Amino acid sequence: MRILQLHVDYIEYTPIKEEIVDAEPIVDKEKKRLENIVVILLSVEKGDENLIIEDFLNETKKYLDTIKCNSLLLYPYAHLSANLEKPKKAMQILDRIEKELKINLKDSTYRIYRAPFGWTKQLEFRVKGHPMAENSKTFDNVSKSEPSIGNEKLVSLDGRQDDHDHAGVSQALSAEKTLKSSWFILEPNGLLTRYEDYNFRKTENNLKNLFKYEILKNRTVEEQPPHVKLMRKLGIADYEPASDSGNMRYYPKGRLLKSLLEQFVSRKVSEYGGLEVETPIMYDSHHPSMESYFNRFPARQYNIKSDQKELFLRFAACFGQFLMTKDFQISYKNLPLKLYELTRYSFRREKSGELVGLRRLRAFSMPDCHAFCRDLEQAKSEFEKRFDLSISVLEEIGLDMDQDIEMAIRFTKEFYENNKQFVNSLVSKIGKPVMMEMWSDRFFYFTLKWEFNFLDNQGKASSLSTDQIDIENAERYDISFIDEDGTKKYPIILHNSPSGAIERIIFALLEKSARLIKEGKTPFLPLWLMNTQVRIIPIKNELIPFCEKIRNELKDNLIRCDLDDRDDSLSKKIREAETEWIHYIIIVGEKEVESDRISVRDRIKKENYTIDNNAFIQLIRSQIKGKPYLPINLQENLSKRPRIAS
RNA sequence: GGUCAUGUAGCUCAGCCUGGCAGAGCGAAGGUUUUGUAAACCUUAGGUCGCGGGUUCAAAUCCCGUCAUGACCUCCA
Prior knowledge:
The chain has 646 residues and is α+β, with helices and mostly antiparallel strands. The chain folds into 3 domains: 2-151, D-tyrosyl-trna(Tyr) Deacylase, Chain: A (3-Layer(bba) Sandwich); 178-509, Bira Bifunctional Protein, Domain 2 (BirA Bifunctional Protein, domain 2), CATH 3.30.930; 527-640, Anticodon-binding domain (Rossmann fold), CATH 3.40.50. The strands form 7 sheets. The protein has a 10-stranded mixed β-sheet. Strands 1, 2, 3, 4, 5, 6 and 7 form a 7-stranded mixed β-sheet that branches. A hairpin with a 5-residue loop joins strand 10 (181-186) and strand 11 (192-194). Helix 4 (226-233) packs across helix 12 and helix 5 packs antiparallel against helix 8. The two termini are 47 Å apart. The model is unreliable at 143-178 and 217-222 (pLDDT under 50). The chain binds one RNA strand of 77 nucleotides through strand 2, helix 2, strand 5 and helix 14.
């Protein structure tokens, strides 16, 4: 038997649903709140017989006496052990423990509670700060107990790993290493509040969820995330069983969606001044620069052996760009120097259980822009430009900074104290409170980083855009420039992904749509990302030639348009177009042949109207203005298309 | 790796508890129909019920093993 004893100020738990077949039947699914109570999280293990139960009972009584607390909650908690008893038997043992405790402690004022067994439960509690408030113990036939005591809030670096953090170079994966973190809310006016002392407003639910996700590790999930269903239904992407998990297949619609996003982000970075380069996707594991890396960051990369050479697949664009930059001759006059690559792909061998749909992959496309700066002053000014760039990229893609995104900013205490004004100026651009994490020491290669997090339908946070101030890698890679005084210096490197992984953007757009569905609203993807922007449906087959004329006219105006020439009823064709989320449907009958006007069914406005041909073209052009264009990536006649979406 | 769940037609799933002819809808193919704003009608094809073993007169169904997938794993006993 393994247990965690916790003395808490309060505990709240809510049974969500039965997790196993043998879950105990319960009537009351209300949230329970208990205050000033000892909570014992326990796992019943195979071979827990009388002696062990005796030990546990004695220990529990002793503990309650020691800390002078007279209420107790028994909380079945499977995750303490890898050697669990079968559910039925475990429940019997729990029942017995509960009864024995009640009998033993009956004469006093003790109160004994027990949380339901076999249920998925939402759990929240606050542990008291005294030295005896947290103990873990093991009861078995060999070692009687092995208590470990601690009440310091430690944050494991592994636990807070920022997946797809574009510069994944950084994240130490060693679980032993911990560093002290403090959590705050930083408001646009610079006001700083400790997380514990902050009262979240109703509109700040997403921010609250972000904290929950990061600190309380509240990640209760009941089902597959909704975007997985949508990505298949819409024929965008799917799992590929023949590959490694986390390596997806993208159907024509998905490929077009990705191409457009890739082109869009690349163009925005180019306008900002990033120079696009291309670097290899695999590297020699024994190259000196790589080795120093791996020593510090036990990696999760794909390894390949080719002849006698050991190679790994890149997990970020950093190596390629750094190795390239190292060979440049750089003067201070050339700085800031900005290099950009959109990797297709970056690879990370995430643990199999961590992979989810398009949210977390093993192969993903990551825009990655590094700026090499002369000094901190230049870095800060460049940093602000990239901050603005990232905001505009997300907004133009169709995400709402106010509703969809929560910002987190993290830095060392030292950096903050020297650059308060700079930090505050970033936050004030967001115009709402952000999550702030402050580290006592610098463990990472950067002194400051921020991310924009998308909060999905399950309250899970995924980072999209991010930027970092890196003061370590220039030296490691021997990237230098000659300063005004003729001396060799190492630049500061900024690591920015203005959008985050392209696949994750698709994930965010789909989750946003799923939210609309949940709210009873019409889900949609931005018009400029739709493979079919306009669907033409003839009322009769004889009108197909006329429809083709309209289609060609739209096509000449760079509008993606297709024609439903199948032998189906009009209603059915409309229905299918609706289920494909097509924004505009044009119905063509005799009336339309005779006039210059076309009949439009507008899915977003939810209305039908007739409109002049040119006005319609302008209506669409105005909505996709400034966005990249690619021709439709499926047969223009639906009768020629195989069925792809399921 | 652990816990739990799932695996039946191209897709979504029912059947399993309580053993007795392999099912439905969608999709596909052929035909009829030529449609005015969210599913026309008829017909046909389509299966190693993940795989292996066991129990039984009889197994998709019960038991054991195994493989694959999914969710979770300092979130859900």
